[in-house]
Task: inverse folding
């Protein structure tokens, strides 16, 4: 059974802090790893990673994948209250589009 | 594009009643997914379709759950009879079907159907 584990489960930080969210996986036939941000509604796409060691960056968010150690991290620098959300990691496996999600990291950024 | 459209947005029903959730995927997307999200278990894949054909329904909890995709623009998830433990947010998502490592493909979620069974 494919497994995706995220840590920490929840996190409270102050504005301006830097946070690192973790995602490890044990799956068969890995294709790619994706990060999503979920506020009150549907998850919205952040990054897709397929190659080890290549950082993807979007503003204050960045992510990297390690296919040897089977994990990914999502970094958020200079956090803002608008970053408060659940961050979901998902792994795409097989020849189709099946995504297995972790349970998410609940991030709260306080003033 | 209107995105993935789900209905109803909210549903409160009594235990034992039948519940039908509906989804219209993004036009041109031929993979469709049903996910269930709860606090305890996170996002769980229930079933997914490629070209209207069910590919993997191993996540469907039990015989009370069934899903259909009669055409490329419509899918239903039915729970009969519903139970309080079915209370969750049910997300439908879609994506263009692709083989192999094609970068840029992700799945697009609807806004969810919030189900409460009392």
Result:
């Amino acid at each position: 059974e494919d497994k995706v584990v995220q840590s920490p489960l929840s996190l409270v930080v102050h504005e301006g802090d830097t946070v690192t969210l973790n995602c490890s996986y044990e799956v068969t036939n890995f294709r790619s790893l994706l990060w999503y941000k979920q506020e009150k509604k549907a998850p919205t796409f952040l990054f897709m990673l397929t190659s080890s060691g290549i950082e993807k960056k979007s503003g204050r968010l960045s992510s990297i994948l390690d296919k040897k150690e089977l994990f990914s991290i999502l970094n958020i620098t200079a956090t803002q209250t608008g970053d408060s959300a659940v961050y979901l990691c998902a792994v795409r496996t097989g020849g189709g589009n099946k995504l297995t999600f972790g349970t998410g990291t609940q991030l709260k950024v306080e003033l | 594009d209107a995105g993935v459209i789900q209905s109803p947005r909210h549903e409160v029903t009594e235990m034992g009643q039948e519940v039908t959730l509906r989804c219209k995927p993004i036009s041109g997307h031929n993979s469709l997914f049903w996910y269930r999200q709860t606090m305890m278990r996170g996002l769980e894949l229930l079933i997914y379709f490629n070209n209207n054909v069910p590919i993997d329904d191993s996540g469907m909890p039990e015989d009370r759950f069934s899903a259909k995709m009669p055409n490329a623009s419509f899918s239903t998830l039915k729970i009969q009879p519903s139970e309080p433990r079915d209370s969750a947010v049910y997300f439908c998502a879609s994506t263009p079907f692709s083989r192999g490592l094609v970068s840029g493909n992700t799945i697009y979620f609807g806004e969810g159907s919030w189900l409460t069974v009392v």
